[in-house]
Amino acid sequence: MFEDTDDKFYVFNSLYTEVVDEFYPVKTKETTKKYPAYVNKVYRKNIYKKSQSDNKRKRFPGKVNHEAFRVQRNFCAKLRNSALRDYFVRKCSGGAKGGRDFWDAVGPFFNGKSTNKQSAHIDLIENNEIVSNQTQVCNILNTHFITKPANIGNSSTLRLDGPLENTNLTAHPSVQTILQSANKCDFNFDYVTQEQVRSSIKGLKNKAPGHDKITAKILKISSPQIVSPLSSVFNSCVDTSTFPSACKKAEVTPGHKKGADTDKTNFRPLSVLPSVGKVFEDLMLEQLELVNNTVLHTLISAYRPGYGCQEVLLHMLDSITQALDQNKMAGAVTTDLSSAFDCMPPNLMYHKLVAYGFTHQAALLIHSYLTNRSQRVKIGSAVGEWLPLAKGTPQGSKLGPALWNLFINDLLYSLPQDSAVNFADDNTLYAVEETPRGLETKLNSIVNQAQQWYIENGMQPNPTKFQSIFFGETPQCTVNVDNINIQPTGVIKLLGVSIDSQLSFSQHINEICRKAGCNLNVLKRVAHSLPQKVKLLLYNTYISCHFNFCPLVWHFCSGADTEKLERLQYRALRFVFADYESDYDSLLLRANMPKLELSRQRQICVQVFKCVHKLAPQYLSNMYTFQDKSLHNTRSALALAQSHYKSVRHGQKSFKCYSTHLWNNLPSNIRAVADLESFKSMINTWMGTQCKCNFCKWVQ
């Protein structure tokens, strides 16, 4: 009946919304100030009395009034402890079986995020005046969110904006790099079946609805009736290469980053998209993922299964330690981009996709998704005006991360081999050379190549936020970007791990102990009346997690730092079991846990298994080779060739050397396992290497 995709979607959306409004109407209510969930009636009444006593003490200073306030304050503290104890016993005694009630009760105390938030209210200072009207605040923030990326990318010598038909970017350096160096594919979007639409709806998370107020829950309930029209609308999108306009409208929630909450520059946009639009994005993403392994560079590590921060850091640090072991010089520079996802030029993205082998129709559908978008800011019940977006992909979309990977992919083809690692918009550049002068020249060349790519692709690098670090005994070199000297630092924070120039990871261990110690103190305050199994669950959830973030990266810390972590776990287990007499090994046995060091060794073996069986990123799998049986009298199969090293500090303690030695000392029946889950099950019974050589003595 309708040929235009927007018309088809409008008819579906109108009829569907009419039915939903009749049988599932939106209910609105005014939220009032709420006390924390544990505050009972008696405690609340005494809080009011304490406030009265405090006001009286301030108005009429004197010993009597001060003493009355002190007594009431201490009584309130006693009531608070009692209320907390009763609250946790009531909510948490059943453990995680209590479902959301359990996690809502304990979560705010450990992560500082309240589940009982008041109505959002933001005051801004604009032109030296305080703006309290929430509608005005919405419009001010929205204008800022849109204007900032719109003003980025104008320094490129090639015009990136304007109508697609008037823009010819085939001569763009990135497009030429893709045509000459990148892997190609033959891709077009296919029609979807009703079953695929049903599966996509089922996978929706129950999050806040978009501007149409249609929740994921409603879509799931009505999926048997709507999969047919939705599949028809999506297939129309494929035919016409047009993404529905109504699905390109986003309601933005301002997220405070840091700094003064009256400064609009300290907020970032968090987009809430329509649920139906998320279904369409998921259907597109499902097909795009089929070409990821073909097109994406092996060093693109974000938003890909099997890739993570730990793999990225292992790859870079192993290259650096290998160089230091050979008495070479090594340095790295971390770069910074402003609003990277918000600055993606749709026209350039179209030409890149065509260069990769996407058909005109497929690239045009993605171009349609990226263009003619609009958004408004919502704070509480106040909403601002709809404003058009010039470019970029919304933060919070399903399709955005996959498109970003395709957009930034050619950067890694533009740089020398083994000179960069990437995770989303975090790009770290590094170099290895024989001499300090050679290192300085090479690192400056790599950094300026990346800087040129950023500018040509419509990004805005911030050289003032770049950081440089030089490892081992490497003299500090000068890195210059746009006449700005990047000052060397002794420690950089990269993908959540603090890396120091000596690769001792002492500062990172201190941060782990601080965070885990804070949560342990919280656990002691809130969970002393809970059953033992609940305390152990909370320990594993909120404390042990700090020990398990990128543990293979910082495993090579000093013995003193290793012991510090073990003592912290010992202290936690003593509280969990209320046993202050038993030794560490006995408590570990009761908790069915290994020591932290043994746990990391097991994880290293799992990582090697993934590399050996090609389940890990290619850049890690290439680290290992099997021993040549004609040259080595191996005791069993699947033994890895050990690399030669010159020093203990950077050779023997490198991840490649250490992990190879651990793997070769595993029992042959464990190494011979072919299934990952079976290997994990068997490795959890392994109690460490039994070899008595000097290497293994250090390992133990």
Write up this protein.
- It is a single chain.
- Helix 21 (596-612) packs across helix 24 (655-664).
- The protein contains 27 helices and 15 strands.
- The longest helix has 30 residues, at 63-92.
- The strands form 5 sheets. Strands 3, 4, 6, 7 and 8 form a 5-stranded mixed sheet that branches. Strands 9-10-5-11 form a 4-stranded antiparallel sheet. It has a two-stranded antiparallel sheet with strand order 1-2.
- Mean pLDDT is 89; it is low at 114-119 and 630-635.
- Helix content is 50%, strand content 9%.
- By secondary structure, it is of the alpha+beta class.
Task: Reconstruct the topology from this structure.
Blueprint: H1 5-23, H2 41-59, H3 63-92, H4 100-111, E1 124-126, E2 129-131, H5 134-150, H6 173-181, H7 194-202, H8 216-221, H9 223-240, E3 249-256, E4 267-272, H10 275-295, H11 309-325, E5 329-334, H12 346-356, H13 360-370, E6 374-379, E7 382-383, E8 387-388, H14 399-414, E9 420-423, E10 426-433, H15 436-456, E11 467-470, E12 479-481, E13 484-486, E14 491-494, E15 497-500, H16 506-526, H17 532-542, H18 544-547, H19 559-576, H20 584-591, H21 596-612, H22 618-621, H23 648-652, H24 655-664, H25 668-671, H26 676-683, H27 694-699
Parallel strand pairs: 3-6
Antiparallel strand pairs: 1-2, 3-4, 5-10, 5-11, 6-7, 6-8, 9-10, 12-13, 14-15
Helix pairs in contact: 1-9, 2-3, 3-4, 6-12, 6-14, 7-9, 7-10, 10-14, 12-13, 16-17, 16-19, 21-24, 21-26
